[in-house]
Amino acid sequence: MIAFYTLLYKELLRFWKVAFQTVLAPVITALLYLLIFSHVLEAHVQVYPGVGYTAFLIPGLVMMSMLQNAFANSSSSLIQSKITGNIVFMLLPPLSYLQFFGAYMLAAAVRGIVVGAGVFVVTVAFTTTPVLHPLWLIAFALLGTGVMGALGIIAGIWAEKFDQLAAFQNFLIMPLTFLSGVFYSIHSLPPFWQAVSRYNPVFYMIDGFRYGFFGVADVAPQLSLLVVGVCFVALSAFTLILLKSGYKLRH
């Protein structure tokens, strides 16, 4: 397990050494979203009974930050290693594809959770946000960052240059996260777009995570957990197949 721990340490150190960019910057971005949307809509929108719009917004921003940064960590690390050529130092040691996958995904999850915790801490000054079901919250945080960590590995393996990775993020990750109910409840949408939203797996991550705070959600948390769990298993299995085959890494 020495190789696994070494790679994990390297990945953790990689984002922590530039925490101003990888942690503080996304926290400030989320804070700006909160300031703008809460200022404009707090007095006009109430999604759940007894829950102000600012309080409703905070779990969505926390989860969105976690998901985007988990994806960014694993995908950017792999593409940088491929372009600079130092990927060879991860492929030559006796490191199994399971250890490779575990180290990258765990580091992605850690970065996502650190950023999410930072966003939550800075929003405490704006409103009191209860945590009624902490176990549900933890489950969705871990599974959500795991899904995005695995998806980041897939994107990093597939992409051969930075603009391909940027396209992956801009045309897939960003729309999925922004159109997942971060800023609104899907029940405020017309029936057609409500149905479309239910095909977005990120919606279930956001909705289930929000349930951990308020105990209310747009869909049953058990259904959300099932959808996110299936996505995690499917993406992890696909990632392991790619790593085992050496697709665009060893060949």
Q: What are the salient characteristics of this protein?
A:
mainly alpha; 251 residues
Structural topology:
Blueprint: H1 2-16, H2 19-41, H3 53-84, H4 88-91, H5 97-123, H6 134-158, H7 162-178, H8 191-197, H9 201-214, H10 221-245
Write a structural description:
With 251 residues, the protein is mostly helical. It is 75% helix and 0% strand. Helix 2 (19-41) packs across helix 5. The model has no long low-confidence stretch (mean pLDDT 91).
Quick recap:
The protein has ten helices and no strands. The protein has helices at residues 2-16, 19-41, 53-84, 88-91, 97-123, 134-158, 162-178, 191-197, 201-214, 221-245.
Tally of DSSP β-strands: 0
In terms of DSSP E residues, the strand content is under 5%
- Total count of domains: 1
Outline the low-pLDDT stretches.
none
Main sheet overview: none
Q: In which range does the helix fraction lie? A: over 70%
The oligomeric state is single chain
Note the overall shape: globular
Gyration radius, to the nearest Å?
18 Å
Structural class: mainly alpha
- Helices, by number, come to 10
Separation of the first and last Cα atoms: 25 Å
